[in-house]
Every structure is written in structure tokens, then in C-alpha cells.
Specification:
This protein has about 70 residues and is mainly α. It has one domain. The protein is about 55% helix and about 0% strand.
């Protein structure tokens, strides 16, 4: 709850939680590192993440470099 509380407090109101999270990451941090080896949806819901945020995280794929 701590992290999402502060993300929501400091992000622009028109920005989604997911977009605020993504724009705050700098290499080597990226969504796939937040996802982990075992995806724990219930723990994320209990921590206050929205179902939309969780779905974005679940669906995230690393960009393919050309």
C-alpha cells in the first residue's frame, strides 16, 4: 500500500497509475522486474493496485530491439 499511495499522491490526476509507474522507471528497472517469476495477483490487489494496473503488468512484454 505504501508505494501505490505515494505514486497516486504525486502523479498528475489525469495520468493512470500504470502510465505514472512506467514513466518513472529508468534502466535497468522495468515492468518485467516488478512482475517477478511467480505472478501474485491476490497480493497485488491486497496492496491496493487496481485490476487494470495488474492486467497491464501481466501483459507487459519487453520491447524488441532492432
Amino acid at each position: 500500500e505504501f508505494g501505490i499511495h505515494w505514486l497516486r499522491r504525486f502523479k498528475p490526476p489525469e495520468m493512470t497509475d500504470w502510465d505514472a509507474f512506467r514513466t518513472s522507471l529508468h534502466w535497468p528497472l522495468r515492468p518485467s522486474r516488478a512482475r517477478g517469476d511467480l505472478f501474485q495477483e491476490d497480493a497485488r490487489l491486497a496492496a491496493g493496485l487496481s485490476p487494470d494496473f495488474i492486467q497491464e503488468l501481466r501483459d507487459w512484454e519487453e520491447p524488441v530491439e532492432e
